[in-house]
Amino acid sequence: MAKKASRLSPAESAIMHQLWELGEAKVNDLLDACNAVRAEPITRNTLLVQLERIEAKGWIKRDRGEFAHVFRPAKPKQEGLRHATRDFLDRFFGGALTPLLAHCVEEKGLDRNEIKELRALLDEAEKQAKQKVKK
Fold first, then answer.
1. Dihedral over Cα of 27, 30, 20, 79: its sign
2. Exposed, middle or buried by CB within 10 Å (0-12, 13-18, 19+), for 48?
3. Which of 15, 19, 21, 125 has the CA that lies 20 to 30 A from 80?
4. Where does residue 6 rank: exposed (0-12), middle (13-18), buried (19+ CB within 10 A)?
5. Which element (helix H / strand E) includes 64?
């Protein structure tokens, strides 16, 4: 049975996003990618420690090559997003989606296109809910 991946810290999440973009990477390539999007660069040693933690949590795999280790995601990006979203929803909104959506609308507001997209998503969700009731 596969080990359930543990929650990633914000720093670990940032590294995972870079690794998902690259597909696979050696340490120096991943270090360059991470530092390209950071205000303060991280060191190679810091990255190695983070990679060990992420690997222990089950999010990445390491191929031990002859000269360099190659890291690749063990989980697809969509699974990472799903995991992070569920965790966020549980921690801040008790698992309820409506308060999260209400908060987003109150804080940011919606433009016409966003309202149209959200309405289409809600219409589709309603259609699926009705189909489940019929079954």
1. positive
2. middle
3. 125
4. middle
5. strand 60-64
The radius of gyration computed from the CA coordinates of the chain, to the nearest angstrom, equals 19
Domains, the chain: 10-77 (1.10.10.10)
**HSE on the CB side for 62, CA within 13 Å?**
16
Instruction: List, for residues 2-58, the tens digit of each pLDDT value.
Output: 455 688 888 999 999 999 999 999 999 999 999 999 999 999 999 999 999 999 999
The residue with tokens 């000269």 is 67
60: three-class secondary structure by DSSP: strand
CB 103 within 8 A of CB 89: no
- Predicted confidence (pLDDT) per residue in 78-115, tens digit: 998 898 888 889 999 999 999 998 998 899 888 999 99
Give CA–CA dist 100/125, Å, rounded. Answer: 17
